[in-house]
Amino acid sequence: MTGSCVGAVVPLLASAGDGVSVAHYLVVGAILFTAGIVCMAVKRNALGVLMGIELVLNGANVNFVAFASPYLRGQGAASLGLDGQVIALFVILLAAAEAAVALAITLNFYNNHATVDVDRADDLKG
Amino acid sequence: MDIAAQLPLLLGLAWLVPLASFVAILFFGPRMGPHGRNAAWVATAAIVTSLVLSLLAAGTWLGAHPVQAAHHGGSHGSDHSAEAAGPVAYAGDWYTLYQGGGLRLSIGWYIDALTVAMFVVVTFIATCIHVYASGYMHDELHDVTDHEVHLSGGGHLHRPGRFPRFFQALSLFCFSMLGIVIAGNLAMVFVFWELVGICSWFLIGFYYERTSASTAANKAFIVNRVGDFGMLIGLMALWGALGTLQFADSKAAGPDGAQVVRPGLFGLVRPAEGGHALQVPDGMVKFAAADLVATTPAAEVAAKIDDWRSMGLGRWLLFIAGVGIFCGCVGKSAQFPLFVWLPDAMEGPTPVSALVHSATMVAAGVYLVGRFYPVLTPDVLLVIAYVGAITLFIAATIALVANDIKRVLAYSTVSQLGYMMLALGVGGWAAGLFHLVTHAFFKSLLFLCSGSVIHACHTNDMRKMGGLARVMPWTAGTMLVGCLAIIGAGVPFVIGLSGYYSKDAILAQALSFSRANPAHSILFLAVAGGAFLTAFYMFRLWFMTFAGEPRDHHVADHAHESPGVMVAPLVVLAVLAVAAGWTLPGGFGLPNLLEQARPAGTAEGMTGGFVFGNLTFPAEHESHEGAIHVTATLTAFATALAGVVLAALMYLVRIISPAVVATIFRPVYSFLAGRWYFDELYHALFVLPALGIAELASGTDRGVIDRIIEGLAWTARQLAGIDAWIDRTIVDGLVNATANATWHAGLELKKLQTGHLRQYVMFIVVGTVALFVLASLLFRTSMAG
User: Fold this and answer.
1) Which of B428, B336, B331 shows the shortest CA–CA distance to B387?
2) pLDDT for position B478
3) Model confidence at B719, in pLDDT bands (50, 70, 90)?
4) Residues of A in contact with B750 (CB under 8 A)
5) Would you call A4 and B758 a contact, using CB atoms and an 8 Å cutoff?
6) What pLDDT score does B368 carry?
7) Residue B470 domain-assigned?
8) Which of B761, B762, B779 to mutate to test the interface with A (most CBs of A within 10 A)?
9) In the listed set B614, B645, B673, which residue is the last one of a domain according to the structure?
10) Whole-prediction pTM
11) Chain B within 8 Å of A121 (Cβ-Cβ)?
12) What would the mean pLDDT of B264-283 be, rounded to a whole number?
């Protein structure tokens, strides 16, 4: 997986030349995203999982902002205008709301099971 | 008050009072004193009121129309003007039920001397019988054990008494009978005709738990329906052709408000402008000549009616109308061939036999023939005469060998009704109705006497009686009077009992008719022979019951004279049985009273006839004269005497043994004892075929219709079975298979839901990556491009 991602990014890096370009931000976003996914997949602590989610969302935000920046993409490049930044703001808003709900669930789960281990949260298993 | 308004008021009240009594007893009977004892008083008070009102009406009538001696012989000339005007009669309507087009139904009255006389007779006899019955029916005042009903358990029926019910039916009967008498049109007659029929059914079936009684009641009702069917045909013939059933002319407001005279039946058949001579009415001529009327210009129809009449058109219609009405009378008056119900009707209590089945209801047929007389053609009259002759002969012969005291009297009633019919049929209008009245008195007397005997002996079988005169002197004496009256005893040409006068009149008229029509002289022989047979069987009855030594000591020891309440009506009726036929000096008497009501145009006799050849009906007054009167009186006296002497020889002094006579004439005896096998004949001719048809119908029902329906049901069931199989196997199978597949898929998919959050994340990641790989593989070219 990582290989294919790298494979896709490398041409962007190559075409960017010297300065900092969109590709560099995309690499940072991909690292953040991957770290978030890994965090969600390996953490048994529910709070750790939430943190992984925040990482994933922020990885996506970096991408939005990068694609929307005229400085990064050059004057002639197609621009998204302000849309990217606005979507990033929405995502932050949604992340806050999601974190509030998820924390409430976690708190309740803790009240009932005296733990925040997500492997113990299998009451709804089929 | 004007007599024309007073008579309908008095007689109408007399008619309605028994209805009030019926309604009162119907609703409150069981609450009238202990066991409804006072119902007898209510009913008796009602009929006494009727009697008083009828007597007042009779007084009013006699005050306005004094009865005078009939004019015979030379004084005919002065009579003609009165004859031309027709009899004095008052007619009108109380209430019109329906009027539309030519159609009119009403409740009305037709009052003449006959009506008044019948009212007095009916209410008087009914009063006697109400008093008698209040004694006779006392058994019904407490619980009754009916020894003639054998229950399946071996015991006898035990039931509550039905005292009020008896008087309730009696009151309804009086109302209905008076309704027939007062009726102003044939439709009203028919209604009350059926009402007396249903009363008769109630009363014959009074002991309805007895099979014999309920069967007899049904038999009477059904046999009467046969006659009534003929009557309906007669009514339809009259109504269809003439458009009216009113007896008399009536005035009604026409369309323009002016008074219009609507001619009644009598006026149509015997129009005053033709001197009241019988003719086929215009309506019937037009009805029969419908084809000719259709082809004739409307303006010429009226002129041609006389031509068509002379061609004989419509006379069959008039004949059918007359015979049809007579059919109803045949049923009600128990004439041949429908007389079989009357002897069985003796299953009812004896007062009923006296009132309904001898004195009044069965006389209604004779009354209707008398009332309807102006419309009857010579041919119809001959039919009536022959039916009467056959009836009187058959019934008299059966009465010779009957051993049940009430059956002897029943057959005697049939025979006497035959006399009346014959008298009317040979032109003796007054003679027939005179005999109706006198017969009502002496026959009700005879029945009440027999009731007294039965009350004392608890059996109807004369072979167990004998010598009762010693213990029951009053009953024996009054019954002797009745027997003498019915055989027409009297000193010839001087004085006699009531039957002497009425029977002589019939004999004389029959003789007069036979002389005028030699072909039909057998009618006179029937009357004379009947007189002999009557005398024989009546005195056979009296001798067997009252004379000689007791045959059964068990019966004789228990016999006792009946209580005063039962004997008093006997004495009253006996007095009338003696005196009813007398004509006082000055001409006051029943025959002359009836003469006032003689239908217009019948006083001078009548000739005509097209079915049975030309017939001559001699005027009735001719039979009171000279040779005919002497011959008739002597014949009557001789035959009656011969009958009494023969009866005395066989049953009193016993020179001739009845048993030996029966042995010598065994075939005849068993034929008569078998009642001419009429019941068996009707059973074979009508009852068995009816049962056969019923059997066939029920066989068809069970064998064919039921089979078809069962087959249909079976097919439907089979189809439903197939349908159910398809439903259960295929439809349900498909649904179940789908459900099962879903279920199992669910079970399999359930395993993915491990409940491990981290696994889910892995699924998402792997799935997303897989989608990306897939997308990049698929769109490689486009991306590269």
Assistant:
1) B336
2) 92
3) very high
4) 126
5) no
6) 93
7) yes
8) B761
9) B673
10) 0.76
11) yes
12) 83
What pLDDT was estimated at residue A18? 62
Q: Is residue B565 part of a domain?
A: yes
ipTM value: 0.76
Average pLDDT, chain B: 86
CA distance B770 to chain A (A): 9
CATH for the A2-114 domain, from 3.10.20.30, 1.10.287.3510, 3.30.365.10, 2.40.30.20: 1.10.287.3510
Q: Is A42 on the interface with B (CB under 8 A)?
A: yes
Which of B624, B640, B673 is where one domain is finished?
B673
Where does B298-428 have alpha helices with state H?
Answer: 298-310, 315-332, 341-344, 350-354, 361-371, 378-401, 405-425
CA B631-B634-B636 angle, to 5 degrees, is: 105
- The alpha-carbon gap from B763 to the nearest alpha carbon of chain A, in Å, equals 10
Residues of chain A positioned with their CB less than 8 A from the CB of B762: 41
- Judged by a CB distance cut-off of 8 A, whether residue A3 touches chain B is no
Report which residue type is found at B628: I
**With bands split at pLDDT 50, 70 and 90, how would you rate the model's confidence at B680?**
confident
**Interface touch B749/A126, C-beta < 8 Å:** yes
Q: Is the pLDDT of residue B756 over 70?
A: yes
Does the pLDDT value for residue A19 go beyond 80?
Answer: no
Domains of chain A by residue range = 2-114
Please judge whether A40 and B761 are an interchain contact, meaning their C-beta atoms are less than 8 angstroms apart: yes
Q: Kindly state whether residues B647 and B775 are assigned to the same domain.
A: no
Contact A125 B761 (CB under 8 A): no
- Given an 8 Å threshold on Cβ–Cβ distance, is A121 in contact with B755? yes
Distance from CA of B757 to the nearest CA of A (A): 6
Whether the ω angle into residue B337 lies within 30 degrees of 0, i.e. cis, is yes
What percentage of chain B has pLDDT greater than the value 70?
96
pLDDT tens per residue, range B57-109: 999 988 888 887 655 443 333 344 444 467 888 888 888 888 776 677 889 99
Contact across the interface for A119 and B756, Cβ inside 8 Å? yes
Domain identity same for B537 and B669: yes
Q: How far, CA to CA in Å, does B124 sit from each of B47, B87, B626, B767? A: 8, 25, 36, 122
Which residue type occupies B638? A
Amino acid at B153: G
Nearest to B305 by CA among B297, B317, B313: B313
Give residue for tokens 């694609």.
A67
Say how many domains are in chain B.
2
Tell me: do B462 and B602 sit in the same domain.
yes
Task: Check residue B286 and give its pLDDT.
Answer: 83
Q: Is residue B23 part of a domain?
A: no
B 753-772: CB under 8 A from A: 753-758, 761-762, 765, 769, 772
From first CA to last CA, the distance across chain B in angstroms is: 136
Structural domain of B451: 377-673
